UniProtKB/TrEMBL annotation:
Gene3D superfamilies, A to Z: NAD(P)-binding Rossmann-like Domain (3.40.50.720)
Family: Belongs to the short-chain dehydrogenases/reductases (SDR) family.
Designated name of the protein: Short-chain dehydrogenase/reductase SDR
InterPro entries: KR_dom (IPR057326), NAD(P)-bd_dom_sf (IPR036291), SDR_fam (IPR002347)
């Protein structure tokens, strides 16, 4: 019960890494609020997470939505000990294919979304809180065709450092997690045929030193460490969980 008596907010907690993390946090004793936009999955997610969960609708790009979510979390939980700013979007973006819509989507969901999530919940963060920002292994090195996502995640990685300084006096720790290629529904949302998705995952796995994609649970365990008091001396860092892809 490493998160006993703690309350957590996980944006983008209705799928993939966020959902796996919510399950683990609840198993470790936390009450967890998860957010997402697609209400069609809310009943299933609530059934999977159980009574110690809240499933809330909101777009991280909207300060109005995030303020409403913060108010509901405050009312139900009283305050927050952990925030996992996890909601994000990645999409292939060779320079010549970038249009204003793609630019806005990637930058706004990943960067604006993190800024407004944190701004909305800031008054409710208890002393000693842990905030975890979800970045990506692509912010570490150059990768072909994913430049916008890499740039957005590099900005988020930078926010973890700056905010660590800004909130030292409140003893709020900010850290980042950089997942590598991880088995979640994300790539399946790119509009490709199922077979192409499968082939792409095989190609991705070949480029990973340990030989396979990560599981959402691999990232959840890293988030658990950063969320718990075991990491109380870890501030402003980025924990890379990528099977060695950016390091070897
Ligand atoms: N999977 C990977 O290989 C990988 C690698 C590196 C980093 N990451 C990062 O890990 C995080 C989670 O990704 P995932 O793979 O778990 O993806 P996923 O399975 O597609 O889950 C994404 C979650 O974010 C929510 N979301 C997306 N846009 C949102 C918005 N504008 N407002 C609120 N919620 C939003 C989604 O719900 P709705 O669509 O209903 O809003 C969903 O709950 C992202 O930040 C991603 O960039 C993933």
């Amino acid at each position: 019960m490493r998160l006993k008596n703690k309350s957590a907010l996980i944006t983008g907690g209705t799928s993939g890494i966020g959902l796996a993390t919510a399950k683990l946090f609840i198993a470790e004793g936390a009450k967890v609020a998860v957010t997402g936009r697609d209400e069609a999955v809310f009943d299933r997610v609530k059934a999977e997470l159980g009574e110690n969960s809240l499933v809330l609708k909101g777009d991280v790009r909207s300060l109005k939505d995030m303020r409403a979510i913060a108010a509901e979390v405050k009312e139900k939980f009283g305050g927050l000990d952990v925030v996992f700013a996890n909601a994000g979007w990645a999409f292939p973006s060779p320079l010549n294919d970038i249009d204003e819509q793609l630019y806005s989507e990637i930058m706004d969901i990943n960067v604006k979304g993190v800024v407004f999530t944190l701004q909305a919940v800031l008054p409710d963060l208890r002393e000693g809180s842990s905030v975890i920002l979800n970045t990506s292994f692509v912010d570490q090195t150059g990768k072909h065709g994913i430049s916008l996502t890499a740039a957005a995640k590099a900005a988020v990685r930078s926010l973890a450092r700056s905010w660590s300084y800004e909130f030292l006096d409140r003893k709020i720790r900010f850290n980042a997690i950089a997942p590598g290629a991880t088995e979640t529904p994300l790539i399946g949302r790119w509009g490709m045929a199922d077979e192409d998705v499968r082939n792409l995952k095989v190609e991705l796995a070949k480029a990973i030193p340990v030989g396979h994609m990560g599981r959402a649970e691999d990232i959840a365990y890293a988030a658990l460490y950063l969320a718990s008091d075991e990491s109380s001396y870890v501030v402003g860092t980025e924990l890379v969980v990528d099977g060695g892809a950016s390091q070897l």
